[in-house]
Design goal:
By secondary structure, this protein is an alpha/beta fold. It has 2 domains: 170 residues, Rossmann fold, CATH 3.40.50; 149 residues, Response regulator (Rossmann fold, 3-Layer(aba) Sandwich). Helix content is 45%, strand content 18%. Helix 8 packs across helix 9. It is elongated. The N terminus is likely disordered. The ABC transporter complex is composed of one ATP-binding protein (MglA), two transmembrane proteins (MglC) and a solute-binding protein (MglB). Its main location: periplasm. Belongs to the bacterial solute-binding protein 2 family. One of its GO terms (molecular function) is metal ion binding.
Amino acid sequence: MKKLVLNTVAISVLLGSGLAVAQTEPLIGVTIYQYDDNFMNLMLSEINKESANFKDVRFLMNDSQNSQAIQNNQIDILLAKKVKVLAVNLVDPPAAKTVIAKAKKHNVPVIFFNKDPGAKLLASYNHAYYVGSSPKNSALEQAKLIAKHWNANKQFDLNQDGKIQFAMLTGQPDSTAAEVRSKYVIEELHNLGIQTEALFVDTAMWNGNMARDRMELWLNDTKGKQIEMVIANNDAMALGALESLSAQNKQLPVFGIDALPETLTLIKTGKITATVLNDGAYQSKVLVELARNLALGKNAAEGMPWKPENNSILSPDIAIDKDNVEQYRK
């Protein structure tokens, strides 16, 4: 009888220790503002691909369906599941303060990616990070591309007044990236000696379908025929604008940011003029590596070729047009 009791205890201990081993695999909670977004869908695929290389951590992926309420609920559930790290692609950038408060309360590191919460908020929590690109640098590169093609193609100046009459499609109104990209692309054009006139400027919320509809309204406006160029805060909106232009058999120079695969193909064929590389593949790789290090209790950049600067890791912004597009097409 004693032997039976001992054996039972031994089995329980073994099972218990086996269960403990299974439960010690650190969890990393990831929320993406919307899977149904061209660029974020690309990042989702890359995150899944990169995370598959590691068996010592597990990534829990969540689609926030473009709802901050859903994202907040997902974060609460992930924290209840005792995730070691949160990785958040914000739905609404102002919600970063709430997300940091939740992470702080549980002493969990949080990595914001793609949507920058701003330096002030990052500095408010020692364990907050940002992985993405610099919206200012991407705007400066976009301006250089516009200047290059404007100066080389005199036919772009439809009314020959030496000034770009443009339509601009912007991202979310409360987005730092949208605000910075919109501001600095025009400022840099002026610094480069190019005059501009804004005919239409409005948000399309980073969305291609909304951009298509917005562009259609503008083209049918009394000032529609005066548009000489389309400047978009991202490629999804540039593609939406192109769809509307094509439907009206109209061809104008269109500039985006992101370097989505379909954009690169259209640059090669001459339908899109240029874009700026926002390297989602690199950002996804850094995100996975950073999250894994933090989840395993390591220093953020331990064993990595990149180093955080002010708790941010930024990918380079590279201008792409027909001259170099083949280097970036896969």
